[in-house]
Every structure is written in C-alpha cells, then in structure tokens.
What does this fold into?
Amino acid sequence: MADYRRMLTLEQVAELCGVTPRTVWSWTTRGLRCLRIGRRLRVSPEDLDAWIAGCSASRRVLRETPPSGAGRKRSAARTKRELARKGAI
It folds into this structure.
C-alpha cells in the first residue's frame, strides 16, 4: 500500500522531469499510474520510476529540459550585437 504522504502532485512530477503539468497529465492517459484524491491526481515515486524505466526500455525517450535559450534562432543582428558587447568584434 502506498504511503500517501510521499505521493507527488502532477506539478512536482513535472518539475522533477522538466516538463509541464499538462504533459504529466497526458502521461497518465498513456499508462503512468496515478491515484485520484478528491480532485487531485497523485503519483507515487515508485510508479514514476517504473514508468520511466518502461519508457526507456521501449526506446521512448523523455524530453530533457533544454538549456535556457536552446532551440531559438538568433538573428544575425542580435548575434552581431552580442559579439560586439563581448568585445569580439
């Protein structure tokens, strides 16, 4: 039986995994075991670990949190301004 004091909220799971709470909610519809307590969903740390291990075993990779600013394209003007500020130009 799960220790209810150790159960994680969707927000806590999201913070641990580097995703949004909405993403964690979608994981519950894809097999992440959770328990509804009132209007809230809770996830046990053991179930989270097992689900992540299952994802890794089936070659589905959880998205890692990208570094700040990663994935954004920089304009040439912005890059030039940053280089000038650093004294490289």
Observations:
- The helical segments are 10-17, 21-29, 45-57, 76-85.
- The radius of gyration is 19 Å.
- The beta strands are 8-9, 35-37, 40-43.
